[in-house]
Amino acid sequence: MRTFNTGKITFEYPNTWEVEKANILANPDCIATLSKGSDNLINAVMFPTATNLDDYKIFMEDAITDDGGVILSSDFTQIALKDAIRLHANMDTPDLNFDIHTYVFIESGDIYIFELRTLDISGESEREFKSMIETFRIIG
């Protein structure tokens, strides 16, 4: 296991995942991008928010269905000693069919969104993603 640390957040990730250079010009809210092969991509963003988990859950579900996605599950959970939204959806585009696994946290006026986009149907990448989220800490 390796440690990802921005000075504001930290989490552990398996050696099979690589930290990519975050494209902060295209997405200034991006705090982490990790990949495992060409079939798995994690993006993490953080930005100030005035919303709460209840309202954001509705917004997120609407955004996915508006983009043609199918929500397979969406619920509130506790992970990393925090309240969170956990969502699983499937997106079918002309080029690709992939699953999205998302965890959302809101703490002290900031929202943290971790999203895995994967073609892995074995469940291994999803389990590794959940293990990373379980180690998520806000440190600054």
Explain what this protein looks like in three dimensions.
- This protein is an alpha+beta fold and 140 residues long.
- 18% of the residues lie in helices and 50% in strands.
- The chain has two helices and ten strands, in the order E-E-E-E-E-H-E-E-E-E-H-E.
- The protein has a seven-stranded antiparallel beta sheet, sandwiched between helices. A three-stranded antiparallel beta sheet has the order 1-2-10.
- Strand 6 (70-79) and strand 7 form a beta hairpin.
- The chain is globular, with a radius of gyration of 14 Å.
- The protein starts with a strand and ends with a strand.
Name the features.
140 residues, 7-stranded antiparallel beta sheet, alpha+beta, single chain
- Overall mean pLDDT stands at 95
Report the β-strand fraction as a percent range: over 45%
Number of helices: 2
Strand order of the largest sheet: 3-4-5-9-8-7-6
Q: What is the succession of H and E elements? A: EEEEEHEEEEHE
Structural class determined from secondary elements? alpha+beta
Helix content: 10-25%
Rg from Cα = 14 Å
- Total number of β-strand segments? 10
Amino-to-carboxy terminus distance: 22 Å
- Shape descriptor: globular
Taking pLDDT < 50 over at least 5 consecutive residues as the criterion, the unreliable ranges are none
Largest sheet data? 7 strands, antiparallel
